[in-house]
């Protein structure tokens, strides 16, 4: 779910205030936050460091902020602030691999919260559907008309992107559990005592296999596949009870869909924005220069099979 974080300092300590920006129903939002908090608490009891939620005087985790009618209502949750620096993949990934494997397994093995739901509709769409071929072709035509510097790079990658999309199929595996579905490097802090996993509010029932596969792709393939780190992750993951299985490239469906949707949305942002963003243009060129491809999926699959 879409949100932004504010830091609040008070005499009682420092807190993270999460302002929820895009949701349909307050009751459903509260239910999701309750379930994700229960999962985070269970994982914390097994050693996973993460935000500690704060309830209001009525015992609620989500509250309305400010005054005014319902059209102006803002809802937020509060947790204890965690001091640390953002994880830098090139700097920290070697130290984080085994921790990440243990953490993924610990979350899998935690009891499923009774009120847990399936993935948020927006996130479900992000992880299971991809732009159609005609949408890529339209984006290419628009980028050429707008004389975008990256237009021909997109043209050169269209075939590769459409082949990659073929690995996104409906999840049919029986291994479903309530998980943290977004264990990206950007959601990890490096603290004085180790690592902390943030952004639990999207926790939901989803495919164990595909979350495992997405985690491997997003952590251990930027800049090239890292068999040594995948091995370290998988050994720690199995040792702590992780049960996910990557049988073929369709297990990477969540990772592929997330990559393709990110790429497409960045392109759309560049095409519709009144002002060009240097940061987004640079990210787009980088993603098109070395995109996720089927050979990467196959290389990761081969490493996992050797370990299994």
TrEMBL record:
Which positions fall inside the Aminoglycoside phosphotransferase domain? Answer: 6-216
SUPFAM superfamilies referenced in this protein's UniProt entry, alphabetically: Protein kinase-like (PK-like)
| InterPro entries for this protein | Aminoglycoside_PTrfase, Kinase-like_dom_sf
The protein's name: Aminoglycoside phosphotransferase domain-containing protein
Which organism was this protein described from? Microlunatus endophyticus
């Amino acid at each position: 779910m879409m949100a932004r974080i504010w830091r609040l300092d008070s005499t009682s300590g420092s807190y993270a205030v999460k302002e929820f920006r895009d949701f349909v129903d307050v009751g459903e939002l509260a239910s999701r936050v309750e379930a994700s908090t229960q999962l985070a608490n269970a994982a914390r009891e097994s050693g996973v460091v993460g935000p500690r939620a704060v309830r209001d005087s009525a015992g609620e985790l989500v509250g309305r902020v400010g005054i005014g009618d319902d059209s102006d209502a803002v809802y937020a949750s509060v947790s204890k602030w965690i001091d640390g620096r953002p994880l830098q993949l090139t700097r920290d990934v070697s130290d984080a691999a085994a921790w990440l494997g243990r953490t993924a397994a610990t979350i899998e093995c935690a009891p499923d919260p009774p009120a847990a739901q399936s993935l948020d509709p927006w996130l479900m769409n992000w992880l299971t559907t991809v732009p159609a071929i005609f949408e890529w072709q339209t984006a290419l035509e628009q980028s050429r008309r707008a004389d975008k510097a990256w237009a021909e790079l997109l043209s050169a990658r269209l075939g590769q992107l459409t082949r990659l999309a073929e690995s996104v199929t409906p999840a049919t595996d029986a291994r479903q559990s309530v998980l943290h579905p977004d264990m990206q490097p950007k959601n990890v802090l490096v603290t004085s005592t180790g690592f902390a996993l943030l952004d639990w509010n999207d926790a939901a029932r989803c495919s164990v296999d595909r979350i495992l596969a997405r985690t491997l792709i997003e952590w251990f393939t930027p800049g090239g596949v890292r068999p040594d780190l995948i091995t370290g992750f998988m050994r720690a993951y199995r040792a702590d009870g992780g049960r996910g299985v990557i049988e073929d490239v369709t297990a990477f469906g969540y990772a592929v869909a997330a990559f393709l949707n990110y790429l497409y949305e960045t392109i759309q942002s560049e095409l519709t924005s009144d002002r060009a963003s240097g940061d987004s243009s640079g990210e787009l060129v980088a993603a098109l220069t070395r995109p996720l491809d089927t050979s990467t999926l196959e290389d990761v699959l081969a490493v996992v099979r050797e370990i299994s």
